[in-house]
Design brief:
This protein is α+β, with helices and mostly antiparallel strands. The protein contains three helices and two strands. A two-stranded antiparallel ribbon has the order 1-2. The radius of gyration is 12 Å and the shape is globular.
Length: about 70
C-alpha cells in the first residue's frame, strides 16, 4: 500500500496532507486511537478524526474514502 498512498499524497498535495506513523515508535498514539488492525488510514480535520479505514484497498477506493471524509 505504500506506493499507492505515496501516489495519492503526491497527486493531492494541494488538497490534503499525508503523514505516516511508525507503530513501534508511537505506542501511546496507537493506544489513544485504539488501533487494532493494519494498515489503518485515519483522516483528521481540525484535529478530529473524520474518517477511519482499515485494510488494503484499491487506490480509487482509498482516495474516495478520504475525499468523502473531508467533504462531510
Amino acid at each position: 500500500m505504500v506506493p499507492v498512498v505515496t501516489q495519492i499524497a503526491l497527486e493531492n498535495r494541494n488538497t490534503f496532507a499525508v503523514a505516516k506513523l511508525n507503530n513501534d515508535e508511537n505506542r501511546e498514539t496507537i493506544r489513544k486511537y485504539q488501533v487494532r488492525g493494519q494498515p489503518i488510514y485515519m483522516v483528521f480535520q481540525d484535529g478530529k478524526v473524520v474518517g477511519r479505514f482499515v485494510g488494503a484497498m484499491p487506490k480509487a477506493r482509498l482516495l474516495q474514502n478520504i475525499l468523502n471524509a473531508i467533504n462531510k
